[in-house]
Amino acid sequence: MKKSLTLLGVVLCMHAYTNAPSASAQAFPVNTWVALTKAGDNAAAKNYTISTSTNPALPVFIPGATFTSPYDLNGIGMNPVDHYIYGCAYTGNTAQPSSMLNVNLYRIASNGTFTDLGKLPKTGQMPTLTSAQMGITVNLEVPNFSAGTVDANGTYYYSSIGIKESGKNKIQAYYVGVLTGNPVPLTLTVSDLRLFFCWLSNVSTMTSSTMPSAPTGYYELDVSNPVINGSLVSFVNQFNTLFPNNLNNIDGGIQDFAVNPIDFKVYGYVSYFQGANLVGRPVSFTAPTVSGALAIVSSLGTTANTVPGVDIAGVQFDEFGNFYGLFNNGSYGTINLTTGALSLSPTTLPTTGGQLRGDLASAATANFPLPVTLVSFNGQALAGANELRWEVSNDSKGKDFAIERSKDSRAFEALHTEAFQAGTTKYSFTDLNPAAVSYYRLKTTADDGRISYSKTVALVNKANNPVLVYPTVISDNKINITAATSAYTFSLYNLAGQEVFRKAVSQSGNTTAIALPALAAGQYIVRIQGTDAQQVTGTAQIVIR
C-alpha cells in the first residue's frame, strides 16, 4: 500500500489515457495471483513490475511485464469476469481545487497496458469547502486508493474517507490564519472523520463515459474499536503535522482489505504506533444488508505485530480462506485470523534499499453477498387504505421483505412478508385496515440471515378520522379542531413518535382554537383522544413553518 489515506494536497502530473482497452491489452490467465509493485519507497520512480504466482502459499512471484505510470497505482483486485486487474490512483491537482481530491479507477492488463475508467464516485455525505478568497471549492471526501478489491460478481470495492463539518471548520481556520499572517495549527481528530466502504457494480463493462456519479452502494464504518481508532489517531496526528504538504507519506489507517471466500467477511490490516514501535493487527467487519447502514470494524486476536515494523503493501486470500500479506520491506506470509500473528518470509519481488510499494490481487475472489440496496421506501394514504412502495437496486440480493406496522413508532408488529424476486426492483403492498395514524418500516432479510431495517414512514389516513384539523400548514402557531366530542386531549407528536405538546380541551361548541408553543419547522402528527375510552381517536398531519 502507499502508506495510508491521503486526503488533501496531492500534486500529480496529468497524463492522457485511453478510455477503452487497447487492442494489445492481454487478460491474465485463470487462477493467477498478482503482485503489482515498484522498487523503492513512496518517492521512487513509478516503474511497475507485474509479477505472478500460481501458489499464494509460497513467497515466490515470477516477474513479468513492466511499465511506467505517472501515478502511484494501488487498491487492486482481480476481476474474474474479464481477468483484468482493477485499481485506482490519485489524479488530483492542487492547482485545480475542484479536482484536488480526485481518484480514478483503472483497468490493468497482464502486459502492462491500462485504461482510465474515470473518477471514482463519492458517497455525497460530506460537506463542501468553499472559499472565494482561497480559490477553493472542494467536497471533503476522497476515495482511498490504498485499499481496493474485486469480488466474484465483478464488483469493485474501495474505501473512502470524509471530513465532517467540524473538521471543515478547522481547515477553514487554518487557511484564514495563513492568509492573514496569523497561522494556527491544524487540529483534526478522529472524531472529525467518517469512513466508508463503497462499491461499483459491473466494472468490466465500464468506460470513462459510463462511470456513475454515485457508488452503487456504501456502508459507513464504525472505527471506535481501540485498535482501529489508534491507527487513525496515528494517521490524523501526522496529517496535522504535514498538512498541506507530503500527505502521501502519512502512515496509519486501514491499508488494504480483501473478501474471505469462506465466510464472506471483509478483512484488512491496520498499523499504528505503540510508543516508538510501528505495530500491526488484522481487522474485519461483517457487511450489513442495507446500503448506507453502519458496519462495526473489529480487531482480531491479541498479537500486536512489531515485526516487520513497516506498513503493509497488500493482502489477499487463497481459495481455502488463508489470509496473506505483503509488506513494504518485501516480506510476505500468512496472517493468522485467530491470533493475529504473522509468519513471514522474504519474497523474490524487486526492492530498492529494502523497500517496495504496491499491492496484491487474488485469484480467489469471493462471491460476496451484496446487501439489498434500498433505493427508496415511502407510502401514500388512500381512501381507507395505505399504500407502501419500495425500490431496490438491480444488483440486490436477499431472501425476503417484511412490512412492519406500529401505532406509536416504537412497538412494531409484522403485517406482510414478501419473497425477494430476482430481477424485480419495485415492490408494493396495500394496508387495507390502517389506523388513523400508522407507522411503517421495511425489514430486510439477506440470504445469510442478516436483518436490517429501513427508515420509519408515518401515514395519516383521513378516511378514518372523526375530527377536522385546519389549517394543515401553520405559520402563526394557531390550529383549529372540530370534533364530535366536547372534552378531549389534544397531543402533538413529531415524526419520531415523540410527544412535543399536550393540552386538555373542554369546549362548549364543536370547534376550538388551540395556541401551539414555538416548535421547530417540520411535519407533526395531531392526535385527539376523547375522555371516554369508547370514543375513537382522531388524527391529522400538519406542517409547521
From TrEMBL:
The keyword Signal applies. It comes from the Bacteria. InterPro entries: DUF6923, Ig-like_fold, Secre_tail. Residues 60-162 form the DUF6923 domain. Residues 1-25 form the signal peptide. Keywords: Signal. This is Putative secreted protein (Por secretion system target). It comes from Taibaiella chishuiensis. The lineage of its organism: Bacteria, Pseudomonadati, Bacteroidota, Chitinophagia, Chitinophagales.
